[in-house]
Fold each of these.
Amino acid sequence: MLITGGAGGLGGAVVAAFAAEGWRVVAPVRRAGAEVAGAETVVADLTDAGAVAAAAALAAGDAAAPLRAVVCAAG
């Protein structure tokens, strides 16, 4: 699962809910070192198509936990 805005209030609640159900969650963040509880983070500027593609590739890159959903909770 890829959740944009996962570091925010609503996005953090969505990450927590899916992580609690056993989903593998990837959350793009704006700066290196930022963490989102329950998610793998990837630094990505969501206005940059290449960065978005890299985040999606990370989310889809685990054959044992394929990308099955995207939640857009970013601004």
Amino acid sequence: MSSRPSRLIALGEGVYTVAEVSHILQPTMTPRKVHYWLKKGILGPPIRPTRTGRLTLLTFEQLLKVRTVQHLRDDLHFS
């Protein structure tokens, strides 16, 4: 066994990849939009940011923020 600490984050209830968030909020949500809003700071920092070969992980709260921004843009026509 390795004595090196694990850097894995358990994927369970309440943790989502950007692709999963986009899939849940189809048809108007795309990974590009989610990454843009993350970059702008609208959603707060991800649990784990994107790095080579690693997925960006978001919380359930961030999924709800994405849905709220999506609603403001698509349904209420906010810019």
Amino acid sequence: MLLEVTAYETEAEQLNEELMREGLLTGTGEKESYEVREIYARHSRLFEPANVRARLAERQDMRTLNLAEFAVEGHIGLRLAEESERLVNAEMQAVVRFDGRDVPYRSAPVLIQNQEDRRVRLEWDRAHRRVMESLNPLYAELWARTRQIAVELGFTDYRSMCDELKRLQLDWLREAAEEILRATAAGWPERVAGALRSVGASPEDGSAADISHFMRARRFDGAFPAERLLGCLKETLAGLGIRLEEQANLHLDIEDRPLKSPRAFCAPVRVPQEVWLVIKPHGGQDDYNSLLHEAGHAEHFTHVDPALPFALRSLGDTSVTETYAFLFNNLLFNERWLTGHLGERDWSEFLEFNRFCETWMLRRYCAKLLYELEMHSLDEERARALYEETLGRHLLVRISPERFLADVDEGFYVAQYLRAWMLEAQLRARLEGEFGPEWFRRPAAGEMLKGLWRLGDSLDAPALALKMGADGLSPEPLIRALTRN
């Protein structure tokens, strides 16, 4: 049945809510299995070839562009619903076993990160990677089918499909990633070596698991007490003129459940009427980082203009909402914010640690982009080797090849993150230039942010950069922030 655009958008919103709620229930660990086939089946007409072709043919403004992307992604999701369920349920049911102890597969990364004894840490990491390897055939099947469907829809290949639908400018982004890698290379070997030695590893045999433990940074836990976590968030928002306790459309879930995803997330079930912020606390500065990041998403979604059509409230360039998430978690780079909310102390060591972590993540995502731009045209053996070599060369630690598929998100999300990093640096420069280094204490800054948040997904990242007064997306402000002395 061919649907005209308004009817299509109405049903698309219904489907999106049902999928978001299913993801929320499984992500919070309140539901033991992930079941989307029935949801897709109820709305399957949205993704029939005739409706997908109609949405692709209608592309002319941001609303119809977003709906076309939704149609294609939904078409793929519908056809791969069985495979997706199989993979998610396999991950939820998988158990990592070591030294007579069983740990849920999804909880193992947190256990590994918190393990002080390096020998035990690496043994748990090996056990975790063995389970990951057992899941790789499911990932491989999912990716093979995805690439096949992209071609069937008339695109040259999967990369071209994502680039065209999401307007990612992947060739330009590759150049930007290479520029960032060059700009942050000076002194990087010494910084990595120092981080590894601090957790009992040598530069010659250091692994990503060692860096993960370094980033857990227990030595800073005393400065980031659990009892101040929500208070810091409430006070930060209050400084911007936002009362968290008065946001009836924002719900927080910070309970610890065995099946809860270790990866913090924001679930915009109905934008802006029902938004969930979900984290699995495990202590220290990382909890603050996670909560602030997801709060950036949540505040964006809860402030979207409800009069906007669904396609401009809940669909579109995810680089934009990631920008607001980075803006909030990057408050941990601001010594004035740290002192104001967590007390007077010498923050220099923490700030240096935070800059290392930011540089590590940025270099990792730049390397991931370089890998993902090639991996979709390679067989598994060559993709595995390229993953290990590319990330290893830019991060300077041993990279586990078993992660070559699990470390790849759908739709070139790696590109969305890189665009967001750039846009956030531009937005932060604008805020600091207009309201000073303590912009987070200025209700006027909050009003400026609310004005941007109200736009929802009406603008993509390059257009939003232009609206903020820049010439477009640029890596330069980000590079300056990371390389300043």
Amino acid sequence: MSLYQKINAAQNGKDIKAYLDCLHEDFVFIRHQSGTKVSKSDWTPTLMSMMQSDALSFNNQRCLYENDEIMVEHSFMTFPDGTSEAVLVVNFLQDGKIIRTETGATPIR
């Protein structure tokens, strides 16, 4: 099973543990809004809150490219606060896990 398949299954099943298992211990999320860096431990509460919400949804989610170094995804997301965005996610991989994630998003009205 590819890493994309694992993370996609974790997202769809709202399986926080399985999702976190896909992240490297040195994982960093780069916020597209501000460029700030968020560690795995600091990202975990936000991730848990989003995944526990019935309002979080992923639509037309697909992997555009994946190899041992990078995974690029695109989806339309609706967040718990009611906003929707088209989201491009670039995941940099190391040791079979995601070590860094950077996103770009366009609000959907």
